[in-house]
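[job 4417] fold queue: 2 targets
>>> target A
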Amino acid sequence: MTIRRLIYGIPIVLLLTVLLSAALDFIAPGQALAQSVPIPTISIAMDQADDPERIATVINILFVMTVLALAPSILILMTSFVRIVVVFSFLKQGMGTMNSPPNQVIISLALFMTFYLMMPVWKDIEARAFKPFMAHEITQTVALQRALVPVREFMFLQTREKDLALFMQIAGENRPLNKAEVPTMSLIPAFVISELKTAFTIGFLLYIPFVVIDMVVASVLLSMGMMMLPPVMISLPFKLMLFVLVDGWNLVVGSIIRSFGDIARVVGAG
């Protein structure tokens, strides 16, 4: 048996030897080519700098990279995106449709509505900060301060005083005399929870007609003795029919936009 195993193992050994030699022949020209053609490399190093301007440049680059990394969070938490996407999520759950419309469609629609609603704010930022900065009329610090003013005005318009007082109290800040004394770090979380409360209120109102339809369908099925039939299968077509007949998307989107008020007027007045 041992001799037979050795005989059977000879072809396998020969095959491995041939494959190894072919691999070496394939790698060798690659090594020669790598030695003849220089390949660029990237290296990161830390060195001492005697010039303060070099340090300031590096700090500015790190600051810009940090802002770019936080840009999605800024877009979500400091704009109308939170309210819109939460309301659409409640609408989808209330109708009982699992994957229709898809989440990509809901998020994309929420983003475009955010761009539409925030357009007056961004135009004000462009007029106050971006154009003077590009014309070298103001410094970078002044441009950032001016750009923050329209965003703060928008957030103040949608923030409840109760939520703002909560974060001011947690931060240990004194009662502000005006809006300019309110720190931005306290305004942002207060704005977010105010938006969540408003979105949940709108979502509750959207749920009411769908819940009524579910209760009516469940009662009818129970009275007919069809207890094994899920009410959702019967109520879903009625929900879709009701939503289409009342032009639901027009009503929901219009209500969301009107819930923000006249942003252009408020920002322009500020």
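>>> target B
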Amino acid sequence: MNKYKTGIFHWFGYILPFEERIKLIKQAGYDYVMLWWEDEYYPYILNRMEFNHILGYYDLKLDNVHLPFENINHLWSENSTERNNHVELVKRWLNECKNCGTETVVIHAVQGADNIFDYSPGYDSFKKIIREAENINIKVAVENTQTFQYAEFILKEIESPNAGFCYDSSHDFVNGQSRGAILEKWKHKLMAVHLSDNDGLYDRHWIPGKGHVDWNKVIGILKQDNIKSFSMETYPYEEEKQMQPAEFLEKAKNCLETVLEKDCV
């Protein structure tokens, strides 16, 4: 029997009601689910405050909740009103997530690859966010994206048991990224993972083992840490789009377990 806990993002590429997706995830044998913290809209409307109730009904555990990253660059704004307004929005999300039983949220430090920010406003913003996380006892994991320097700045400058790292394997193996080096460097602060594969050019969200990610290296490092779930953020590729949702979920889980069972050193 596979000893590793597995999870998947609640949106895996099929337009279905939230509860139906959760039921299929459970039936496929996953242990954990990752959520996106926004209400579900057309064609199937659901308030986000109901998400965790549905997970509990199907006896699925919550790995982490990804906060929205629209306007996340406001956290680095020179305009204090704009910056503080977004800080307050993030703090509100933290409290909502905590009230729904969330232990860990994932946040982007910045959005986009062409921005250059002064570090001081971002430090001020994230210091306030982490202080709120400490006050309500929730963990905030900063994810590696195209410009990891800002996330790394936060990881270096803000020391707190409530601040850590979310590792996205696909982001790390897109052209020009670290190819596992940042995972090795920041594994001591690892709180969550988003596992998927790509062709080395774009963030494809392929099933693990399909593309160019060095899974021997990534899984070898991850096995050194006591993460609660090897969780995926995957969507169907072209030839997989004809598969039924249950078939895709089963294929993704089988492929993940294949890379987990390899003798990674």
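[job 4417] complete. Note on B: The first strand starts at residue 6 and ends at 9.
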